[in-house]
């Protein structure tokens, strides 16, 4: 624990969970998309839905999608800035079960047509958890360079990915494996100590059985 875990983050807005955390959810979601956002449907759940408007949660989520961080003075104007950039933003109610009370379900479309669904949770003090990507459970904070590999649930894919990272001398800090069902869709979430080079991400995308690769760069 450090001092910022006690006093909270440096931020614009009234609430570390409803404002700073919301900015982080939007920011990480935009980074995971990997390209400028063209359209965003943002669905709110629980306390985000009930009290978020007064705390600026909607503006905070959009600010994050625009690449702003929690202390950016432009956060109150994020909706106006998004409109000026031609980004289509809609808001609604998330129909989630047993989700964290500060949750947002975000559907993104990028400039090239790339799509992404993210469920993010604001867990207090400006910290967040990415709970789902494209309908499959995940569990990571966005504090490390993170590689998310969507693949068929078949033997060999974990070895292919980890061997490629080892060859590039990239150390894996944490690794989580999820699947929708035996033999169905699976996801690997690898938090790394180093940035993953773009060429490795592209090579992973070309492997047989790999459906999608999403990378969170902190650069």
UniProtKB/TrEMBL annotation:
<dbReference type="Pfam" id="PF01842">
    <property type="entry name" value="ACT"/>
</dbReference>
<keyword id="KW-0004">4Fe-4S</keyword>
<dbReference type="GO" id="GO:0003941">
    <property type="term" value="F:L-serine ammonia-lyase activity"/>
</dbReference>
<dbReference type="InterPro" id="IPR004643">
    <property type="entry name" value="Fe-S_L-Ser_bsu"/>
</dbReference>
<keyword id="KW-0411">Iron-sulfur</keyword>
<keyword id="KW-0456">Lyase</keyword>
<comment type="similarity">
    <text>Belongs to the iron-sulfur dependent L-serine dehydratase family.</text>
</comment>
<feature type="domain" description="ACT">
    <location>
        <begin position="146"/>
        <end position="218"/>
    </location>
</feature>
<keyword id="KW-0312">Gluconeogenesis</keyword>
<dbReference type="InterPro" id="IPR002912">
    <property type="entry name" value="ACT_dom"/>
</dbReference>
<dbReference type="InterPro" id="IPR005131">
    <property type="entry name" value="Ser_deHydtase_bsu"/>
</dbReference>
<protein>
    <recommendedName>
        <fullName>L-serine deaminase</fullName>
    </recommendedName>
</protein>
<dbReference type="InterPro" id="IPR029009">
    <property type="entry name" value="ASB_dom_sf"/>
</dbReference>
<dbReference type="InterPro" id="IPR045865">
    <property type="entry name" value="ACT-like_dom_sf"/>
</dbReference>
<keyword id="KW-0479">Metal-binding</keyword>
<dbReference type="InterPro" id="IPR051318">
    <property type="entry name" value="Fe-S_L-Ser"/>
</dbReference>
<comment type="pathway">
    <text>Carbohydrate biosynthesis; gluconeogenesis.</text>
</comment>
<dbReference type="Pfam" id="PF03315">
    <property type="entry name" value="SDH_beta"/>
</dbReference>
<keyword id="KW-0408">Iron</keyword>
């Amino acid at each position: 624990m450090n001092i910022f875990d006690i006093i909270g983050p440096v931020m614009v807005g009234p609430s570390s969970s409803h404002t700073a955390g919301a900015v982080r959810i939007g920011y990480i979601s935009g980074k995971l998309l990997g390209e400028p956002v063209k359209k965003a449907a943002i669905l709110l759940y629980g306390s985000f839905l009930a009290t978020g408007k007064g705390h600026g949660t909607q503006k905070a989520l959009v600010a994050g999608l625009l690449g702003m961080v929690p202390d950016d003075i432009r956060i109150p104007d994020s909706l106006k800035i998004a409109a000026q950039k031609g980004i289509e933003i809609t808001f609604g109610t998330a129909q989630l079960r047993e989700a964290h009370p500060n949750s947002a379900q975000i559907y993104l479309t990028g400039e090239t047509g790339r799509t992404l669904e993210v469920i993010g949770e604001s867990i207090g003090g400006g910290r967040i958890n990415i709970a789902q990507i494209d309908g499959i459970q995940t569990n990571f904070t966005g504090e490390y360079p993170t590689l998310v590999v969507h693949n068929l649930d078949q033997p060999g894919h974990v070895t292919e990915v980890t061997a490629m990272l080892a060859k590039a001398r990239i150390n894996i800090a944490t690794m989580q494996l999820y699947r929708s069902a035996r033999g169905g869709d699976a996801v690997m979430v690898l938090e790394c100590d180093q940035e993953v080079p773009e060429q490795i991400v592209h090579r992973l995308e070309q492997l047989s059985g790999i459906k999608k690769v999403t990378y969170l760069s902190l650069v």
